[in-house]
Fold:
Amino acid sequence: MKVATFNANSIRARLPIILDWLGREAPDLLFLQETKVQDVDFPDNPVEEAGYHAVFRGQKTYNGVAILSKSPLTDVETELPVQGIDEARFISGRMGTLHAVNVYVPQGFEVGSNKFQYKLQWLAHLLEHVAAHYEPSSPLLLAGDFNVALTDLDLYDPEGFRGEVGFHPDEQAILQQFFGWGLVDIFRRHVKEGNQYTFWDYRIPNGFKRNMGWRIDYILATAPLAERSRSVRIDREARAMEKPSDHTFLVAEFD
DNA sequence: ATGGTCGGCAACCGA
Structure:
């Protein structure tokens, strides 16, 4: 089984890259974030022509999540309200005994801001939701854009960003609680080296060429799945294509 | 080298 996650930064702008990628990689599951499209405008026809089912939850202009799958998902849920706000940041479903949860965690703007508090509460609420609805002993995938780098290995300038948004101890502490509950960071299970990133800010001149990036996209899995993980890969080629997203695909294969 | 990012969506906001 092959699973991937990709912050598309608009599924419509990225449709050529996504369809090409589906054709070449043929994943069983593809988690997408920042689709930036309302449900009525979701490009479900091209996705179906590529041989995939799609479930999605979008909104105007911002956010938006989707899961593309070879087999249809059941028991789809799309709501995870935090502070009474229900943005399109969460979608979950089931494929047989496998549970899949796709998230687009708030970016957080600036440490100390209301948006940063919202990010922390959103992560804490996601953890509560996971702990209340799933078991560490059952197969669960939790993947997406978490907007948090965990260690000095996970961004190009740890000293420069220490304590800033995306690299703050309060964010990292909540992610650690997901691991404490029983989820495993599949990339880090296989790769011990640094300088391996999934996001490069468009605003940094030649940021991708200079590999000035962050590892903020994750595929997490409970132990029964993690033990079956055989390989993981960051697809840098998709970031080097014409009109790339600022993120790229993170891919994991399971027996 | 006197410039320097995207996407959505129609003036800026968010990343």
